[in-house]
Amino acid sequence: MARPSEGGKKERILDSAVVEIAQRGYHQTTVARIAKRAGVADGTIYLYFKNKEEILFSLFDRAMGRFIEEGRTRLQNAASAPEKLRQIIELHLTLVGEDRDQAIIIQVELRHSLHFMGQLSRAQVGEYLDIIGQVVVQGQEDGEFRTDLAPVFAAKAIFGVLDEMATDWVLSHRNTRLESKAGVVAEFVLAGLKK
Amino acid sequence: MARPSEGGKKERILDSAVVEIAQRGYHQTTVARIAKRAGVADGTIYLYFKNKEEILFSLFDRAMGRFIEEGRTRLQNAASAPEKLRQIIELHLTLVGEDRDQAIIIQVELRHSLHFMGQLSRAQVGEYLDIIGQVVVQGQEDGEFRTDLAPVFAAKAIFGVLDEMATDWVLSHRNTRLESKAGVVAEFVLAGLKK
DNA sequence: TTCGGAAAAATGAATGGTCATTCAGTATTT
DNA sequence: AAATACTGAATGACCATTCATTTTTCCGAA
């Protein structure tokens, strides 16, 4: 029968890490603090993670997984490229805006070092950009989007806008909802893409 | 009479910091290494900087200073809002693309922690965004840009695109010139803004 | 022009605090 | 009673920062 902590311990550690790291930053966060919040011993962390940095990697995986999975799902409920783009934009801002601590991790703490970012960007960020890029391709094939912009470029540009909105939201202490920006972002981006 | 190192020692320390931090990241870079590269003793660093973090702040100031100063200059040589925007875009990408080590600092290492970024963004980044925003305002007043986008939003969106191009360039190890993207960026952004 | 010594600048070895990580031992599950 | 999971005190490496000492600069007096 489901022991209460079974399998959930790793998740609990990750959840604790989000809170602690969001509050004090990765480098000020000690493994001991994460352990304490998770209600486990310091050493237990190392049964689940090779080292402290791997906790960050796991947080990234978990977050990107959601983006990609939900992104793919949403695209199936939209036909036209502009509509798909709207969906992606809304999803992106909704997911980031859902949880401020998590957003701090994604927008700030995961971008620590060149070494670290290099690894991240190759992996799932590339996949995410691909998804956006393919929507652009569709839009071009359907004759809705201009064809003088390379899809790869367009994808990065769109991501750049979304990322900036997200970072700005995290840094500003206002109490707005991030996804309220989805409308304007879509209008700006679509105007830039349309024929 | 001009002592040879007068005033130049602080600059030398900053230059060394750029190289070292770009190579190994801020947290892996020891004060001792920076000192060694600059050809001074460890303790000398503390005659010029309160602590290690202040070196990062100084690097940021130095970089942003260039952006803002040159930005203002360029705007005087351009009349129309679209032309001004082109100038800013080209300048931004040129300045970042000029020096890879410096770019690593700007795009990655300066974004270490929430605490750190919070301080940065209020200060000069805000000033930079203002400059862009004012060009948007002009474009709207001149009847060249649509008026349904808030200038503050537009400025962030434009910055987001530029920032993403810059980060992408830093992370990719390709040997392209960053400013070669200026044309497409301008076309995309202007299409998004124009009536 | 030179000298002396005070002020300023620079040095770098020593200090102290901080954690990530380990692992011998304990508890729990099968 | 073996295997598995967990514990947390101890270890050891690391490095920012300090400060007693040394070196260099400055400048007035001779």
Structural write-up:
- Two copies of one chain form a homodimer.
- In chain A, helix 4 runs antiparallel to helix 5 and helix 6 packs across helix 8.
- The N terminus of chain A is likely disordered.
- Chain A is an all-alpha fold.
- Chain A is elongated, with a radius of gyration of 19 Å.
- Chain A has two domains: 49 residues, Orthogonal Bundle (Arc Repressor Mutant, subunit A); 138 residues, Tetracycline Repressor, domain 2, CATH 1.10.357.10.
- The first copy, chain A, has nine helices and no strands.
- In chain A, 73% of the residues lie in helices and 0% in strands.
- At the A-B interface, helix 7, helix 8 and helix 9 of A face helix 7, helix 8 and helix 9 of B.
- The structure holds a DNA duplex (30 and 30 nucleotides).
Summary?
The structure is a homodimer of 195-residue chains. Chain A has helices at residues 8-24, 31-38, 42-48, 52-76, 81-97, 100-107, 114-141, 151-171, 182-193. The first copy, chain A, is mostly helical and 195 residues long.
